[in-house]
């Protein structure tokens, strides 16, 4: 199930067309190879997801709900002359909007609810150095609930 969830989440993220997202954190000892993985043109644009939390609930003897929370990390090159912070924040909105279009991930999940919160939740946004490039980084999370 986790691989199906990863694939569905990454498909939605990549459908927003703001960079390349991976179902796992990519790494290479070679900085140029790593930069190519997350690169878009001359800059960086993309990210990855990582399973953060999983829990099982049995509210009824005949029904089990599994709740999965994924971290979503998004990186984009910082270009002050182009007001990249504004564009980056617009891209975060575009990612959340992509989940609003398909809130059940093609009927794979019951919902994207985490208590009172729904959809992609922004946890933190900060500049980071990534592959020698100053980037905006957003750390977000997405919670999905699956019943069986």
Write the layout of secondary structure elements.
Elements: H1 2-15, E1 20-22, H2 31-38, E2 39-40, E3 43-60, E4 63-77, H3 84-101, E5 113-114, E6 117-118, E7 121-130, E8 133-147
Written overview of the protein:
With 148 residues, the protein is of the alpha+beta class. 27% of the residues lie in helices and 45% in strands. It has helices at residues 2-15, 31-38, 84-101; strands at residues 20-22, 39-40, 43-60, 63-77, 113-114, 117-118, 121-130, 133-147. The strands form two sheets. Strands 1, 2, 3, 4, 7 and 8 form a six-stranded mixed beta sheet that branches. A hairpin with a 2-residue loop joins β7 (121-130) and β8. The longest helix is centred in the middle third of the chain and has 18 residues, at 84-101. The mean pLDDT is 90.
Number of strands: 8
Report the C-alpha radius of gyration, rounded.
16 Å
The chain-level mean pLDDT equals 90
Low-confidence stretches: none
Number of helices: 3
Shape: elongated
Largest sheet: 6 strands, mixed
The N- to C-terminal Cα distance equals: 11 Å
Percentage of residues in DSSP E strands = over 45%
Q: Structural class per helix/strand content?
A: alpha+beta
């Amino acid at each position: 199930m986790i691989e199906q969830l990863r694939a569905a989440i990454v498909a939605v993220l990549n459908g927003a067309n703001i960079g390349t997202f991976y179902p796992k954190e990519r790494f290479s000892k070679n900085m140029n190879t790593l930069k190519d993985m997350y690169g878009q043109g001359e800059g960086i644009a993309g990210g990855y997801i990582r399973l953060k939390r999983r829990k099982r609930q049995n509210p009824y003897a005949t029904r089990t709900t599994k709740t999965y929370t994924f971290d979503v990390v998004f990186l984009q090159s910082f270009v002050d002359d182009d007001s990249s912070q504004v564009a980056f924040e617009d891209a975060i909105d575009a990612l959340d909007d992509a989940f609003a279009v398909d809130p059940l991930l093609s009927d794979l999940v019951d919902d994207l609810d985490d208590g009172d919160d729904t959809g992609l939740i922004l946890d933190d946004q900060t500049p980071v150095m990534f592959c020698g490039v100053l980037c905006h980084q957003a750390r977000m999370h997405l919670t999905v609930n699956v019943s069986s």
